[in-house]
Amino acid sequence: MSYLPIQQLLKTAPINTQVTVKGWVRTKRESKNAVFIALNDGSTINTIQAVAEAGQLPEETLKLITTGACVAFTGQLVPSQGSGQAVELKIEDVTIYGPADPEKYPLQPKRHSLEFLRELAHLRPRTNTFSAILRVRHALAFAVHQYFNDNGFYYLNTPIITASDAEGAGEMFRVTTLDAVKPPLTEDGKVDYSQDFFGKETNLTVSGQLEGELGALALGKIYTFGPTFRAENSNTTRHLAEFWMIEPEMAFFELEDNMRLAEDFVKTVIRYALQHCADDLAFLDNRLKEEEKTKKKEEQSEMGLLDKLHFVISNEFVKLTYTDAIDILVNSKPAKKKQFQYEVSWGVDLQSEHERYLVEKHFKKPVILTNYPREIKAFYMKQDADGKTVRAMDVLFPGIGEIIGGSQREDDMDKLVARMHEVGIEPETLWWYLDTRRFGSAPHAGFGLGFERLVLFVTGMGNIRDVIPFPRAPKTAEF
Ligand code: 4AD
Ligand code: MG
């Protein structure tokens, strides 16, 4: 039986023809003369209304058409009598694929809390909110590939299993086939990884950047888009243990070029979502408005979701140095009134409360902070002439904080090796990385965008665990 996705059916609306729809029942409403069923198949936020006359369907069939059941309806598509939809399907034939016992099916046609739905990650894509998020997520991923393809970048697949710690932060998940209870030991009692699968200690990657640099210094402009793993034990609304990162890396780009690219890139993909996900974003905009109403007046955000997205794509990001940002923060009201949880002075790593003050209170715009102290940044960043700062850039977004982290890379072999010694990385372990500086080194730069943080921003959701189908976080790996 051929059938049309509901999204196409509603768009083309072939009135007075016989059509078949297949999907999951959202609601069933019975009146004296008729029964109305709202059916959704995930192709769109919208449902199609299917109508049967009272008494038309056998009682046992009607009983199986309950919220969550999977069914097919065949019938004429006609202009709808009721308000709320332009067309409806007059049921002539019903197939029940899979009933859903209403006593046991956990999703009911009412508002469930996001916490409750997190426990039901296997079923939550059937709700309006999560199906909308997943469609927006898809559109953003597509826009990412389109952007880079249109701009002469090559998609480079960097390894997921790696023997190096790209960020040097030691937050890695080990990959091993050694016996967990009785691993082979070396003479001095340490685990003998030379007997492990790869003959050395390996982990899941925290970033594809180091291999990305190899690609850029051969292909010119590359990007990665893949899963990334961090074993940081941070139970926040912005951290996942498994997330997707997009890392472009460009030969001959300096910090300013990198900033320009990052701004154009995020604006372009957000614009794509606005153009291609109008229904879903309108739904999410409305959802957020309802949620805001439950908050105290002073905590309500001034802008709706769509306003915020339009605002970001139509305003230039503020660019300033870390040093200037510290000046602003030190002289800010919350600093003077000791309202920041973490004290701020030159040299400290900015906490999300500081980033959000700059973006949400002070500038009220996305901000690109540059030239951070070298001590708080990774070893590969290019050192500034003052010897104190590096050519780093973080893009900070309202409600999110850091959405992008990047830098110009140190292309001077001697400085790079000296820095590795300072932070305790054995240069020999990264001999292949250093070979790019040894042979045909070039100025280059790149950045990493946390894909879920982008999806968080575009959907207006408050918790990163709600914008990835199956979140991985401390003590969370059920599905
Ligand atoms: O700032 P980060 O650590 O930078 C890097 O990994 C560089 N190698 C990127 C590069 O220059 N190629 O991470 C980049 C971004 C962050 O700005 C944030 O958006 C996201 O990755 N991110 C996370 N997202 C979700 N959960 C986590 N635990 C994240 N850690 C970083
Ligand atoms: Mg960072």
Question: Any key phrases for this structure?
Answer:
2 domains; binds 4-amino-1,4-dioxobutan-2-aminium adenosine-5'-monophosphate; BirA Bifunctional Protein, domain 2; 22% strand; globular; OB fold (Dihydrolipoamide Acetyltransferase, E2P); alpha+beta; 479 residues; binds magnesium ion
Descriptive notes:
The chain is an alpha+beta fold. The chain contains 14 helices and 16 strands. It has helices at 6-12, 59-64, 114-118, 128-150, 209-219, 255-276, 278-293, 305-314, 322-330, 333-336, 352-363, 413-423, 431-438, 451-459; strands at residues 18-30, 34-40, 48-53, 70-79, 87-98, 154-155, 161-162, 174-175, 202-204, 221-229, 242-251, 318-321, 367-370, 392-397, 401-408, 444-450. The protein has an 8-stranded mixed beta sheet with strand order 6-10-11-16-15-14-13-12, with helices on both faces. A 5-stranded mixed β-barrel has the order 1-2-3-5-4. A hairpin with a 7-residue loop joins β4 and β5 (87-98). The longest helix has 23 residues, at 128-150. The chain is globular and about 85 Å long. The structure holds 4-amino-1,4-dioxobutan-2-aminium adenosine-5'-monophosphate (4AD) and magnesium ion. Magnesium ion binds at residues 402, 405.
